[in-house]
């Protein structure tokens, strides 16, 4: 599955592959340019549970991520919109698992971006005809891009050639690593490295990490399931993304998605692999 779309100053591409080992694909990804939302889910569960969970979570998340209200009515804060959508997705998966015995125990990770630009006045007249939208934030501006995650699907930022992981994995091994209880080498070899501590649908409610970010022109965001990050190191990912110019093009994002998936498959492709790239370009 490949999709490349330009939406105003956002350019995005996404690609999902079942990998070299799995028979099916339990990952799901989607975008809603109108809402400024991008999401990746990695499902889990017996039979078809993982596939059901990930697609149900993606669909419910986007359906409940209401865009700002019209006619000047104050909109909910971005973090409230994200949490509302995540709780709705969690309830949908949780209730479906309870109602369908064959889906018992299913769940999914979720990682998402919400672009929520700030309306502001430009020009000297103060007229509403001069209302514009801040896309790239100044240091004094509030965040205009929000990240949310549950589980171990990740969001990375490539800025000025440097790759940074913006999300924390909700996994037992990563929590032990952050607490200094194990080393990075031990974490990589741990038989419990696939055990996540939070998931959409495992309980009636879920705690999501939600935080704001100030985007800059040339930023490149990567959402990915662990089928990518368990096969490729951060250095591997960064090297592939060097081929995406600061002023990203649709062709460069297309090529980068394919290169990331191909590299993960070349390293074993032991899980489903999903990548979603979002580039923020100047007008």
Automatic annotation (TrEMBL):
Molecular function as annotated in GO: protein serine/threonine phosphatase activity
Family annotation (InterPro entries): PP2C, PPM-type-like_dom_sf, PPM-type_phosphatase-like_dom
Coiled-coil positions: none
Domain PPM-type phosphatase: 11-280
Pfam short name (any one): PP2C
Protein name: Protein phosphatase
Species, as recorded: Edaphobacter aggregans
């Amino acid at each position: 599955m490949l999709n490349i779309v330009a939406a105003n100053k956002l350019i995005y591409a996404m690609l999902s592959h079942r990998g070299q080992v799995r028979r099916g694909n339990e990952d799901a990804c989607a975008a809603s340019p109108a809402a400024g939302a991008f999401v990746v889910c990695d499902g889990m569960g017996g039979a078809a549970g993982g596939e059901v969970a990930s697609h149900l979570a993606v669909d419910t998340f986007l359906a409940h991520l209401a865009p700002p209200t019209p006619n000047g009515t104050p909109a909910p804060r971005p973090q409230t919109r994200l949490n509302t959508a995540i709780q709705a997705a969690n309830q949908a998966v949780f209730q479906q698992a309870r109602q369908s015995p064959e889906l018992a125990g299913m769940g999914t990770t979720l990682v998402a971006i919400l672009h929520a630009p700030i309306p502001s006045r430009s020009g000297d007249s103060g007229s509403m005809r001069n209302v514009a939208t801040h896309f790239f934030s100044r240091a004094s501006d509030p965040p205009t891009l929000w990240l949310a995650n549950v589980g171990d699907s990740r969001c990375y930022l490539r800025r000025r050639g440097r790759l940074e992981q913006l999300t924390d994995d909700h996994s037992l091994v990563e929590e032990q690593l952050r607490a200094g209880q194990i080393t990075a080498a031990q974490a990589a070899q741990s038989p419990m490295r696939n055990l996540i501590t939070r998931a959409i649908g495992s309980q009636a409610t879920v705690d999501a990490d939600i935080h704001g970010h100030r985007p800059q022109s040339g930023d490149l965001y990567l959402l990915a399931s662990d089928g990518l990050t368990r096969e490729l190191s951060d250095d591997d990912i960064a090297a592939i993304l060097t081929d995406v110019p600061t002023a990203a093009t649709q062709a460069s994002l297309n090529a980068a998605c394919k290169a990331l998936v191909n590299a993960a498959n070349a390293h074993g492709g032991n899980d489903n692999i999903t990548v979603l790239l979002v580039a923020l370009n100047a007008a």
